[in-house]
Design a protein that fits this description.
Elements: H1 7-24, E1 30-32, E2 50-52, E3 58-64, H2 70-77, E4 82-83, E5 90-93, H3 108-124, E6 129-135
Antiparallel strand pairs: 1-2, 3-5, 3-6, 4-5
Helix pairs in contact: 1-2, 1-3
Length: about 140
C-alpha cells in the first residue's frame, strides 16, 4: 500500500519525477521552411529554413478528476492550476512541475513527458490523474 503523504510532499515528488522526465526526453526535431508551391511538400532552398530542436510546439498538463481532495485543496491554496469548469476536474500545466532556470518549454514532447511523470506520481497515491495535451 502507498505511503500516506501530505499534498505538499506528493507535489514535490511529482516535480522531481517531472524534472527527470524532461531531462530524459529527446524530442524529434523538425525543419520548417516555405514550400516551392502553395500546397507543396518540399522546402524552397532559396528561402529561410529553420531547425527546431524541440520539435513541434504544444501544451500538456495533468487533469485531476474529480476536482476535490487534499491535493486539489493544496494546489488551490498555492494558486497552482485551475478548476476546469468546461470539461470538469482540476488542471495543472506541465510548467508548474518543471522549475528549472529558463524553463518555459514549448516542446510538445517534453511537456507530455513532464505531465505524464507527474500524473503517474499522483496515481501512485490514489489520485485520479491523467495527461491532457494539445499541439500549438
Amino acid at each position: 500500500m502507498a505511503q500516506v503523504l501530505v499534498a505538499e510532499e506528493i507535489f514535490a515528488e511529482a516535480q522531481i519525477a517531472a524534472h527527470n522526465a524532461a531531462k530524459a526526453c529527446v524530442p524529434r526535431p523538425m525543419i520548417v521552411g516555405t514550400p516551392t508551391t502553395l500546397l507543396g511538400n518540399d522546402i524552397d532552398p532559396n528561402k529561410d529554413v529553420y531547425y527546431v530542436a524541440g520539435g513541434v510546439c504544444g501544451f500538456a498538463g495533468v487533469k485531476i478528476r474529480p476536482a476535490r481532495g487534499a491535493l486539489v485543496a493544496w494546489l488551490k491554496k498555492h494558486q497552482i492550476g485551475y478548476r476546469d469548469d468546461y470539461a470538469g476536474g482540476y488542471y495543472v500545466s506541465a510548467q508548474a512541475f518543471y522549475r528549472a532556470p529558463g524553463a518555459l518549454v514549448q516542446s510538445y514532447e517534453i511537456n507530455v513527458a513532464i505531465a505524464g511523470a507527474a500524473a503517474e506520481v499522483f496515481r501512485k497515491y490514489g489520485i485520479d490523474a491523467y495527461v491532457e495535451a494539445r499541439l500549438d
